[in-house]
Amino acid sequence: MSTAKIPNQKKSNEETTVIVGMSGGVDSSVCAAVLKEQGYNVIGMFMKNWEEQDENGVCQSSKEYADVISVCEKLDIPYYSVDFVKEYRDNVFQHFLDEYEAGFTPNPDILCNREIKFKVFLNKALELGADYLATGHYCQNILIDGENHLVKGNDPGKDQTYFLYTMKKEKLEHVHFPIGHLPKTEVRKLAEKFDLSTKHKKDSTGICFIGERNFKNFLSNYIQIKPGKFETLSGEEVGEHSGSAYYTIGQRKGLGLGGPGAPWFVVGKDTKRNVVIVERGEDHPALFFDELWADEISWVSGEFKGELPLKCKAKIRYRQEDQDCTITKIEDGELHVQFDQAQRAVALRQSIVFYTQVQGHAVCLGGAMISRAGKSHYEQGQ
Fold first, then answer.
1. Domains contained in the chain, CATH given
2. Are the beta carbons of 169 and 302 closer than 8 angstroms?
3. Which of 12, 72, 76, 310 is the 20 to 30 A CA-CA neighbour of 250?
4. Which pLDDT tens digit goes with each residue over 10-26?
């Protein structure tokens, strides 16, 4: 088995303490097993962020912690549970609600990584005497010219650097990603090899604190959402929606709009009037943009390094392939991006994340929150 070396490691494996952030899933379980096999002093630590029961009356965190205990006992390593429920509600969940109420579609995983996993959780691990915190993220921490870089995972379908772009190089000095260089198929094989109780466990999907339940019902428990109208760009009413917060740019499914012709897509929202704007056709010009602006900039290196204009690659959503673009300017806390090819469904308050090649590695430079888009192809044609 190939192994990922911990950058900056100064002591022998046996003298190095690694706390593994264990979620109860197969990825973090394999992290613990691999590190134990490599001779590190491994401790499992479960992070409780949510305490509410799901629709079936099951507390998901209790189920996950039971899996953590099972794996740790199998590996004969100590384990602990830490409670960050208050920190999560104050710094992640409340922001999630505020963004939805404002009409945006937030991504709580990015905020959770910044505010919880690699802030209070990392600090807790270091307070307990750990040399490093290891997690099951599919990404890599590689030392290039003496500096830690956040690098894409080798499994392109699982890479998670999009959710980690707010990581700073100072944090990377204390963080290890043991499986970031492996494909998911290999991780599953390792789980079988170590005979872990999580070896056949399905990957978690969706938003962690919602679990397997109806999203609309969940959200309606926390924010007031009013039904409204679907309108076309010309102002024609074509139906009623159940609340503008439930819809995002480019969405097709769940609109409940039929009739002859091409499918309907969300092309915009007027939150003041509680109107969702729709048009027919997935290639409608109102969905395409050549440029955008973004603020809340976060560089892994701590500051922008390079000269403008900077040609690089970027993605404006997790599953998107990298897009060629140019960062043309950065001023007043906002950057401007021009794309080589038009981008479909630019959603405000989603993250744009930047990449470049450094010595053969796909390095994540950082990212920002999309604050505004240029004129759509529809507007340009008016």
1. 13-193 (3.40.50.620), 225-280 (2.30.30.280), 285-380 (2.40.30.10)
2. yes
3. 310
4. 899 999 999 999 999 99
